[in-house]
Amino acid sequence: MFASSTLGLSNLLTTPTSAICEPKSHPIHSSSLTNYQNNQTTSEPEREPPVPKFKGSPQLNRWSRARALRSGRKLDRPGNRTPNMEVNSPAHPVEGALPRSPPAMGIDSDDELDLTAGKSIYMISDGTGWTAEHSVNAALGQFEHCLIDRACAVNTHLFSGIDDVERLMEIVKQTAKDGAMLVYTLADPSMAESARQACKIWGVPSTDILGPITEAIASHLGVSPSGLPRGAPGRNFPLSEEYFKRIEAIEFTIKQDDGALPQNLHKADIILTGVSRTGKTPLSTYLAHKGYKVANVPIVMGVDLPKTLFEVDPEKVFGLTINPVILQTIRRARAKSLGFSEEIRDNYSEMDYVKRELEYAGRIFSQNPVWPVIEVTGKAIEETTAVLLRLYHDRHNKCSMPRISKRY
Asked: Where are the compositionally biased (Polar residues) regions (predicted)?
């Protein structure tokens, strides 16, 4: 199985498996390809540049583009699409390679245009693909200046559960046809070597993520690796104390969501507080999967905070805040999806109310200066978690800390 995603320009795409498994089952003749290109040229009218719906500061617009990029939404930009669909030959041609086929039935033609416009990165894994996907996403984070400011799309495609050489060769061939780059995490040394040799033969730029670090650790420990992917038959995963701790943390966090059971706040490792839609619940869940018991307490004007919040160890508590314009946008979408009445919308997503509620939360934070306040605007959950855990462990290890009043 595999998944596809486009950073910067297109939505999540799903390509039929047959497109990879049987690349030669539906050959495309040059005449039909020419007719398809002519039809595309004559039928699609020239598009006018989209009129921006919202004008904000350059910094805010940049953050909005980054947020859209992370969520996989398309970014409409003037001139980033052309009426004519050009079929680019791969940088490293393969004998018998076919040109890229027209959009298949059921696939949006705009998405297909976006797909051909960007550079592709194929990822192969013999397991879930978590390592490959997160490694590539971490590396792509170094190119946001290009992905956002210059609209250079990058399409990532994940092929997971690849455990035989024949299937591996089919994907490498398709990678060569599309002029893509290949990244792989294959625990079996023979599979990894097959991928390396195939990429060399077909001229595919490739990176082995797992091999070099596995060899380095094997050399350091003086022990040979098993060569078995995660989840392979024969691998034994004992239920460790850490596993049960994580399960307990997840159960605790679910029960403590949105201010529930305030009498249990003293049992939490971490307590999050902030106004509605500052990301308390997803952040709590993410931390729980790391083994931390997390409670979150909403700040709402006119509603008293639980007394236990001020009685627990203040070094457990972390405040969350956000830009008011972004918060208003999120709340408007939330109110619309829940079908709120006009009156409730005015008391929830109007700018005056949003600002007053943020100011109210700010006064509470200033009255409790030991609580660090984390600015979540423009931050992914992983980034907020990194800041929060650094502060959390600095306190537990009695490390020196910067000024508490600073927002992180």
From this structure: 28-43
Rounded to the nearest 10 degrees, the angle between the axes of helix 324-338 and helix 58-71 is: 40
β-pairing, 154-159 vs 2-7, is antiparallel
Burial of 290 (0-12, 13-18, 19+ CB in 10 A): exposed
Helix (H) or strand (E) holding 154, with range, is strand 154-159
Burial (CB count within 10 angstroms: exposed 0-12, middle 13-18, buried 19+), residue 172: buried
> 290 is written with which tokens?
């790391």
DSSP H/E element including 207: strand 206-208
Entry pTM: 0.55
Neighbours of 63 (CB within 10 A): 19
How far is 42 from 83, CA to CA, in rounded Å?
A: 9
DSSP H or E segment with residue 122 = strand 119-125
Residues forming CATH 3.40.50 domain(s) in the chain: 241-396
For every one of its 408 residues, what pLDDT tens digit does the chain have, with 9 covering 90 and above? 445 554 443 333 333 333 343 444 444 343 433 443 444 444 444 555 554 444 445 554 555 555 555 445 544 544 443 333 333 333 443 333 333 333 333 333 333 334 445 789 999 999 889 899 989 988 988 887 776 655 678 889 999 999 899 999 999 999 999 999 999 999 999 999 999 999 999 999 999 999 999 999 999 999 999 888 876 766 666 667 888 899 999 999 999 999 999 999 999 999 999 999 999 999 999 999 999 999 999 999 989 999 999 999 999 999 999 999 999 999 988 888 888 777 676 678 889 999 999 999 999 999 999 999 999 998 989 999 999 999 998 887 765 444 444 567
The C-alpha angle with vertex 246 and arms to 242 and 252, in degrees rounded to 5, equals 140
Tell me the backbone φ, ψ of residue 90, rounded to 5 degrees. -65, 155
In words, the CATH class of domain 241-396 is alpha beta
Separation CA 45–CA 41 (nearest Å) = 8
